[in-house]
Design a protein that fits this description.
4 copies of one chain form a homotetramer.
Chain A lengths: L4 E6 L4 H10 L5 E7 L8 H4 L11 E2 L11 E4 L6 H11 L4 E4 L9 H8 L6 H6 E3 L6 H5 L3 E3 L3 H15 L3 E12 L14 H4 L4 E2 L7 H13 L5 E7 L6 E9 L5 H11 L6 E3 L17 E7 L5 E8 L3 H16 L15
Parallel strand pairs in A: 1-2, 1-4, 2-3, 4-5, 5-7, 6-7, 8-10, 12-13
Antiparallel strand pairs in A: 8-11, 9-10, 11-14, 13-14
Helix pairs in contact in A: 1-11, 7-9
Enzyme class (chains A, B, C, D): oxidoreductase
GO molecular function (chains A, B, C, D): N-acetyl-gamma-glutamyl-phosphate reductase activity; NAD binding; NADP+ binding
EC number (chains A, B, C, D): 1.2.1.38
Chain lengths: 350, 350, 350, 350
């Protein structure tokens, strides 16, 4: 057991927490040492998530009860806002610890952007400097050496993966990007709210956070950097009646001289050899169900009927590549494991 | 009974056919005189659609068996392509008959556009000239006098209603429109195809007909006319796991001097007093479930975070306002009935 | 307006409340005079249920604000337990008022049964004596003269309708009844609870309240009375991922000499001429989707492979015939209207 | 590679076929050597099931093209009826081959029962004698030595696992069993049929095959054997709107002297140490979503309110433990692998 990575999950009673357990319980190089859930401390994990009835898991505890001495790496699956202080405390108590944070707290490198989008000043500015934005494929080298990985948002990952290579290669107009990003319900978590009830979500669709969804800030940060100038995407999330999946439909205007085929080639080149990103043949659009339950992303590029626009489509499972799977992928990088270790689950379809 | 409008439904065994029955069976000024379904001729309608078990409906017959002498108006809910000849035959047999056609056959005024999008020359060019494109709110006067109303497509109606007023008023750039139009499954009809199976559609989402969906031709026709120039929308349909509803998320670039508020005002003005079109307060996006089962449309306008773009959202029930409801609305116009006659069903939510 | 029935709905912000609005807003003999929702008092109904955006409805108020002088009949769609006192107060203030109560408070005629199943003594015993159990088809005459109708539970109505005639006719063994009653989510109401979240309900099924669901008490009351002795059904509710519908699968052991065909004949005789109850041809099982959105019930009887058992199936929409539709049906009886007045909505399928 | 088991899947283009690929592609001791799909021969598996886009799989071929010399074990995921001859041919060509058959063809040991339920005489009676009914937990020893394992039906496995121990122990009355078995859509396969369309299945529930479903024959066979006499269950399947999962609600009458607690204890004893069968604490009912995607079964026993009946609930994923997972479990037995090899996938929830 001495060569296993000892891991704690803070916030194990939410969906990203349980998804971490699903992946890590079968990870050959990880030992799950602590699971926390402040309001459910004392309960067995199988009481909160009966799918784990057959596993031998630690009981839920408070964060304070976790023995950090026995922990190498912490996954934080806590609400944003409160996470900053929790992580600052972790490093204060054990400077050598590694953290993969699934909240939004350390995603924005610019403190002003944070304050603008989240409505209050950041509480751990020193730590923010050390955080690496955890799109595994784009920041692999930085993540390998990181003490704190800021796992990106689910919508963000879905759109950043296809758009960053296209912006870097100057193949699309940075100011004329429309993203409509349809998501299943599990991305909203397990808190009981009226608008998340089955009867409010089933058999219907609606846009939410229109013109102001906070993942926009992550898109801005990454698109500006990739484009080398200010980019602007209009980002509209839709809630659709399914549990898992994000599906971004991106309408892009081609840069002068670019073609839809060139976009496709650029994505194929960018993700050549990547185990989790699959670019479909030119002209094909993916389906979210074909990545469900897996850490995979499928990308498609289709030409519009005119010569100057293309439709780029990207899909992933919001709880896996959009959250806990990418978090494990980042842990693998931090710990020096194989990229695919513990992430071999194939998609479940139907 | 002499003052009732005598109506036949050709193609009553499909979903738009059954939806016509649902609406017309309770219409106070209509008598349902004939229902056809060539492959199911001889069966009782309640065998094909058991929800009608308690109604006293005519048995299903072939089209040839319909006694046109007793019919004032015909709804055609047949597949496109074959409909042209069927309708030409109807008028040949009874020139005074009125027809509301739910297929795509008479929607495109330009025969070349038809040939391009449908892959073969139109078979009833003379009749095409008489057809009126049946967006009830936009072509009310022409519909009133029409012998043949070409009921528009479900995606088309959803996007035409919000965009035509905005293009007419020159409030948005006609060349920079992105439409992502999410639809439920019932719009695809009742033919048994693998990709329409429950297991292929549930718990997932995908784009289809990307860059080439035929409803694009209807959008082009109406947007060009409204803009007074060539307009171009990129139109991407999504299939999402629900029965009913279309939800168009439109990213629009504002014309110089225009504001999102001006877009909202223009829609409010355009649909003031319209019984079926509701513009929500500025900044609110509608939900498809709030129009489900009704002939209502809900529109919303939201400003993007920057000054030059707006998100316009439109939703309706694809089988009602997107097909059979609008067909009845058009019948009301043709027959001189009150606009809302037989269309008072409130949305079913949850 | 003087000949309209003036109606108030207490608890209009829940699903049975909104369903009452859907039905009553189109009822030709009813005026909706007051809508209450204590926690949402002051809001417009369209803010709480945007499907009513186009209607001219009274604003939500507290119960105390309702001017009873202007009200002829009150629908109570409030949580059980608190309803007893509210209704007692109504009669205290206005003895001539009529009440249709959708809660469970007045359904059990036996105060001891109430105390046993609900865990506390009944608070309005005098009033309980006046209450009529509102299965419209079974207690039509009593309901006509009632001051207080206790609308039955959704599961209860679904099983009482097929089983009471069979027990009355001594066609089945009263001690060997198994009922598995699958329900959609809307029956649980709009309160935000974790177990009602979309992600907790979608793509799965589970039994709840096994061996102790409170609707069992209503079944006992009605089955004992019908059988003329103590009957005992095992009643197991299932929650399945749909919004609307209850589907009771009843396994019955035939009484000596009885046949499955005799059961079918008894149901046909019992409901002959009833506008809302349809007995399907012998051997056919109904589908819940064929009554969705309507006040209809569909019943089926199928023989088991052996000679001594039959499967009886019953389905209805839990919000309509299982709650608000039957409440309106009872109102029609109380007010002397036609039975079908305002209840002509056909099922929505698909 | 020499120590890998070389496997062919006949019928890889259906859902049980693709599920076998999902499980076997990650099985550490199996090499997938051949995939057949007669009508789709020549296509890549990723064209038929895009979730496998990143895998290196053999192309689809006809059955005739499979080189049996290179195959140790064949999974048959073909339609019933035709399978008999296919398997007879396999053994004729290579007597040493092992077969796990997922069709119904070899499940019934009694040829008369087969002829009665399937409407024609069995075509491979000699082979039928060698077939072992593959409920892994009940027939482990026989399966280990089998040349032909007849994988049981999905409904059958769900009810046999809880009921056989109870009948063996004489704890319940064999003649008074009611089973209502709710299933998701994927169990019906991928053939395009009207009644399997999304719009026909979503938002509704219905019973099918009432009084005559063929899985009843498997139940009879196993229940009679377990009870040591003729048993009789009334078995009613329900189709509910979800992809995966079977949920059997069993109403059982206790044998004289038995208690619900005794039933629970008997199940705990029967499945003690079984890796895939979990008996929940007494009084708890499982949820199908907690086994989704896994090879797990969850069982629950709840006392009815009276002393003489209990409700027994059993749930599994119809495509895993109900089909392909149990097939792999049986392959593990036949090949002498660890029982859990390749079957460690945890349930996906939400």
């Amino acid at each position: 057991m001495t060569d296993l990575l000892n891991v704690a999950i803070l916030g194990a009673s939410g969906y990203t927490g349980s998804e971490l357990v699903r992946l890590l319980a079968r990870h050959p190089k990880v030992a799950l040492k602590a699971l926390t859930a402040d309001r459910k401390a004392g309960q067995a994990m199988a009481d909160v998530f009966p799918q784990f009835a057959a596993l031998d898991l630690p009981r839920l505890t408070t964060i304070a009860e976790v023995d950090l001495a026995a922990i190498d790496l912490v996954f934080c699956a806590l609400p944003h806002g409160t996470t900053q202080q929790v992580i600052a405390d972790l490093f204060a108590k054990k400077p050598s610890i590694k953290v993969v944070d699934l909240s939004a707290d350390f995603r924005l490198a610019d403190p002003e952007a944070y304050a603008t989008w989240y409505g209050h000043p950041h509480q751990a500015l020193e730590l923010q400097k050390d955080a690496v934005f955890g799109v595994s494929e784009l920041y692999r080298d930085q993540i390998k050496g990181a003490k704190l990985v800021a796992n990106p948002g689910c919508h963000s990952t879905t759109s950043i993966l296809p758009l960053v290579p296209l912006l870097r290669e100057r193949l699309i107009e940075p100011d004329l990007i429309s993203i409509v990003s349809a998501t299943g319900m599990s991305g909203a978590g397990r808190a009981a709210k009226e608008e998340m009830l089955f009867s409010e979500v089933s058999e219907g669709v609606h846009a939410y956070g229109v013109g102001k969804h906070r993942h926009t800030a992550e898109l801005d940060q990454e698109f500006d950097k990739a484009a080398g100038r200010t980019a602007r995407a209009t980002f509209t999330p839709l809630l659709i009646p399914m549990n898992r999946g994000i599906y971004a439909t991106i309408t892009a205007t081609l840069a002068a001289g670019a073609t839809a085929e060139a976009l496709h080639a650029a994505l194929e080149a960018a993700y050549y050899g990547e185990p989790f990103v699959k670019v479909l043949p030119f002209g094909k659009a993916p389906q979210s169900r074909h990545v469900r339950g897996s850490n995979n992303v499928q990308l498609g590029v289709v030409a519009d009927r005119g010569p100057d626009r293309a439709i780029v489509v990207s899909t992933l499972d919001n709880l896996v590549k959009g959250a806990s799977g990418q978090a494990v992928q980042n842990m693998n990088l931090v710990a020096g494991f194989e990229a695919t270790e513990g992430l071999g689950q194939l998609a479940i379809f139907p």
